[in-house]
Design goal:
By secondary structure, this protein is mostly helical. Helices cover 53% and strands 2% of the residues.
């Protein structure tokens, strides 16, 4: 089946083999029913409250699910499609697996094989620039690559209105080409997480201001090194800047945690 396949009826399909087992009992009750993307979203949100339509479309664009299409072009998802989506979301949420690895799991399941073993420990969430985030930017080559607007929304689990608000307060800034890099993706995810605790973009201006003061402090130290004529010294300036930034962030986090403990 291809993503351009036309569906002549949208009532029932044969239920295919379920990759990785059932998502929930309610999935079984749906039988062979074909679902619109809105219905799939409502169903998945029972187990994955943060999923969005943009996320589903992103996973389709990545080839992890291939819904059928009606003659008018509307997506229709069968039970196997919903199961694949749930499997992908579960592997991302519970095991922080990159899409490349999840695709290998699904391919193995399709061949009737056992998927690769999961990592021994999945307690720690990957860092901001580790593979689970880098996979979402084209080519995974680091700072020069870009996510488009739709891809950023899908990766951050956000809506267009959220991103517009973040940009209006300067929390998220697009590059000159209109794209977003891996650091901006991590900022968007963190802002979205804070939003679930009721912190709105206007509340986070203080965090942005504190970050700008720390940036100015680091610049004050490394500016003479960056102006040096020796290329090695200038390269050392960037290493020094990263080390100072790491120390500043650790100091900030420790001070906040110590202050909160003092209030308990």
């Amino acid at each position: 089946m291809t993503s351009n396949q036309t569906v002549t009826t949208v009532t029932t399909v044969t239920t295919p083999r379920r990759p990785g087992g059932p998502v929930s009992r309610s999935a079984e009750r749906r039988g062979g029913e074909l679902l619109s993307i809105g219905a799939v979203l409502a169903f998945l949100r029972e187990d994955f409250p943060e999923v969005t339509i943009s996320k589903i479309r992103f996973l389709e664009a990545e080839g992890l699910v291939e819904p059928q299409r009606t003659p008018s072009g509307y997506r229709k998802f069968g039970p196997a499609d919903v199961e694949r989506l749930a499997y992908v979301l579960r592997m991302q949420r519970d095991h922080y697996l990159p899409l490349r690895v999840i695709r290998e799991h699904l391919d193995a399941i399709e061949r009737g094989e056992q998927p690769p073993a999961l990592p021994a420990s999945t307690e720690a969430r990957p860092g901001p620039l580790e593979e689970a985030d880098r996979e979402l930017v084209a080519g995974g080559q680091g700072g020069g690559v870009r996510l488009g607007r739709a891809e950023l929304l899908a990766a951050a689990g956000a809506e267009e209105g959220d991103l517009a608000a973040w940009e209006s307060y300067g929390l998220v800034v697009a590059g000159p080409d209109g794209g977003y890099d891996a650091d901006t993706l991590q900022i968007a995810r963190l802002v979205a997480e804070l939003g679930r605790f009721g912190l709105e973009p206007r509340h986070l201006r203080q965090v942005k201001a504190a970050a700008e003061r720390e940036i100015a402090l680091v610049d004050q130290v490394v500016a003479p090194l960056r102006r040096h004529r020796n290329p090695q010294t200038r390269a050392h300036a960037e290493t020094t800047a990263r080390e100072l930034a790491t120390l500043a962030v650790r100091l900030h986090a420790t001070m906040v945690q110590a202050g909160l403990r003092g209030r308990s």
